Amino acid sequence: MIFFYLLKLTRPLNVAITGGSVLIAASLSANFFLSKTVILAMISASLITAAANIVNDIYDIEIDKINKPHRILSSGKVSIQNAWVAYFIINIVSLLLAWFAGFILFLIALYSAAILYFYSFYFKRTILAGNFVVSLISGLAFIFGAMAIDDWIVGVAPAVFAFLFHFGREIVKDLEDVQGDLAREVVTFAGRYGKTKSVLLINIIFIILILFLFAPFVLNQYNIYYIYIIIPGVATVLLLISILLWFKNDVMWLNRVSLMLKIDMFIGLCAIYIGANHDIFSNY
Question: pLDDT, tens digit, for every residue of 112-141?
């Protein structure tokens, strides 16, 4: 049973998104093939995300006792000691895999693991800096995947997409957790400036993201199928969420928005993959 709880603690959907991001970034290259390096990079990045989610919940346990008492650590289903053991083991394995994938990939993995620890330990409790760090690491997954195939440039556009997407979602999560953060005197943008300015910031980020979504197609990097998916599946969803947040921003709704954005990230990844593979429908 403890293995199941530890697995849940890693947030498998987030882990899958990271692994998928690395694979998709590598597959965007014309030189792509499923090499040992790509596989090692996928697993390494996924494990770094898993470890980061564990240490995040470790440092958030007091806040979660207020905001999310049902979570694995805050409910006592897994002890702090066992969570720390799992964190260190997973990180060590991820770094070993990155080492075998290549020295540059190892350095990126080491940097990511370190900065994600300091995110949970310190940056998360500062205004916007923590949001920026986790968004940066989310975008870096695409550069990581592209470098696994020695073609880093193809990872730039999806990295920007991921950065903006996660930045907006991070502010949504801050709004969701604002009461617990204030109870622990944790200063976030939502806690300092309130709901109205937070929703305004989310709107600004998502509008920039929506505009950026069209750039790869306009620059002839992605095909028309990218547009067929990105307009209804991502741009429209982001626009509707941005509007609805002005009228509904209670904790339950914010939790649903956070989940919707996580699912929408998957849709965006699919659009990028299909859009960049110009020959994917060549036989139809």
Answer: 999 999 998 888 778 888 899 989 999 999
Does residue 166 form part of some domain?
A: yes
Write out the DSSP string of 116-175: HHHHHHTGGGSTTHHHHHHHHHHHHHHHHHHHTTT-GGGGHHHHHHHHHHHHHHHHHHHH
Per-residue buried b or exposed e for 167-176, using 16+ beta carbons within 10 Å of the residue's own CB: bbbbbbbbbb
- What is the tally of structural domains in the chain? 1
Structure confidence by residue, pLDDT tens digits, 269-278: 889 888 887 5
pLDDT-based confidence at residue 94 (cuts at 50, 70, 90): very high
SS (H, E, C) 17-37: HHHHHHHHHHHCCCCCCCCHH
The arithmetic mean of pLDDT across residues 197-213, rounded, is 95
Mutual angle of helices 103-121 and 129-147, in 10-degree steps: 160
- Assign 234 to helix, strand or coil: helix
What CATH number corresponds to the domain at position 243? 1.10.357.140
Domain that includes residue 157, residue range: 2-276
Q: Is residue 282 part of a domain?
A: no
